[in-house]
Amino acid sequence: MLCPTCEKELKKTTCEECGKTIYLLGAYCYECGSKIEENDFDLTERILCSDDTCIGTINEKGICNVCGKPYKL
Fold this sequence. Notes:
Radius of gyration: 15 Å
Helix content: under 10%
Strand content: 5-15%
Order of helices and strands: EE
Number of helices: 0
Structural class: little secondary structure
Distance between the termini: 33 Å
Strand order of the largest sheet: 1-2
Largest sheet: 2 strands, antiparallel
Shape: elongated
Mean pLDDT: 85
Number of domains: 2
């Protein structure tokens, strides 16, 4: 399954509570609602859009995934 925003492959994990293999879409299992303790979702390496009014992040091409503007230092 690909991310609809960045088109990268989503990571999978196994829920410790229900035992089902799920995509890491958040902090909770979408099958049973249990909290996923081992979450590889890392926000520390994201680059925020340099436009102060935009909520997007910069993709691997150097442009914002929301407004499309190139990143400026």
